Amino acid sequence: MTAETVATTAPTAWGEARNQMYEAGRAAALAPVELPVEEADGLTLAQDLVTLTTLPAFPTSSVDGFAVRGDAPWTVVGKVLAGHSPAPLTGDSTAVEIATGGMLPPGAEGVLRVEESRHTGDGRITGRLRETIEWRRPGEEAELGELLVPAGTPVDPGVLGLAASCGYDTLRVHPRPRAALRVFGDELLTQGPPGDGRVRDALGPNVPALLRRLGCQLAPGAVGPVEDTLEAHVAAIRSALAGADLVCTTGGTMHGPVDHLHPALAELGAEYLVNTVAVRPGFPMLVARVVGDDGRARFIAGLPGNPQSALVALASLVEPLLAGLRGRALPALGTVELAEPVPGRGDFTHLALVHVDAAAGTARPMRHVGSAMLRGLAQAHGFAVIVPGTSGEPGARVPFVPLPLLPGERP
């Protein structure tokens, strides 16, 4: 569906729109890059992580003590430190002192813990070996070529450490999508308190912060407020597309006298992927695609101008789109148990801001959740999903969309 004319089709169902956005992102997934291991945190594996050697690569002591051969008492004939390759232990009733992580000498038959050893006074030690083996065998953790982590896995400190431990210097990963924001509306102020018919722009600070949490690299600064003319809208979007994979715009998604987004998309040759979604709040959201001269798809996400509606659009359309672009799986919906009733919205899906009480395992709907309000958002953990034709009754378990928070901020 092109943007040459105003779409007259029915709104897309919320779940269907979410899936469509993910598939569009997957089809345009960013080409992988090779990065040093330490620079890959937060990105997505574009290759399976397999072992380059057995893990461990050689037998290592798991305790501080003595590697021994034969029966006690043992004559101490040397020392093995981590990072050194020891000589074979060949004599009967001999031992070498060994540190945790030290390579077990060929010929050693056991490791005696230092705290369970006793010096006999004549250069020998004695003690009882435990029945459990006190060293790590090669391949105990993984065999050569074994799959450790599949492609599509988010890279976190655990993956970084695992990759380094089996010899990776670089990782092949999907890079962060580049995102830009264009804020529409002559009525917006960027400084000072609202008044005299003008309101403070809340989305200029809000949307970039959320996009960063969704894994984007942000173009410097939000551009706006953009003048309410078609020419200004076209120029603002075109300039953003030059350096971004995703351009988010705020406002102008309806068809009022100063809503120029749809005509601007038509002038840019954009193709609608989704134009309006059967969800409340946030119904007039959209995503369009523009194919550049290089043949690569870039996306324009039209977020409603009301702040909470814009947030619903980010959670509904932009988050799954970005997951696809980043080579990740579609974010799975969790579930929450409602502690209070949440009304339905008829034929529309209702995304209701809720605060999750982790101790009680329940979610309570927030107050102050009008489309233009952000007060409820400040204490919310995400959205309870009330499917069309139903209402959320206390005790009901319903789908849950978490807000894109930083690690450690989840309830």
From TrEMBL:
It is an enzyme of class 2 (transferase). It catalyses: adenylyl-molybdopterin + molybdate = Mo-molybdopterin + AMP + H(+). Its EC number is 2.10.1.1. Residues 180-324 form the MoaB/Mog domain. Its cofactor is Mg(2+). Pathway: Cofactor biosynthesis; molybdopterin biosynthesis. Keywords: Magnesium, Metal-binding, Molybdenum, Molybdenum cofactor biosynthesis, Transferase. CDD domains: MoeA. Belongs to the MoeA family. Catalyzes the insertion of molybdate into adenylated molybdopterin with the concomitant release of AMP. This is Molybdopterin molybdenumtransferase.
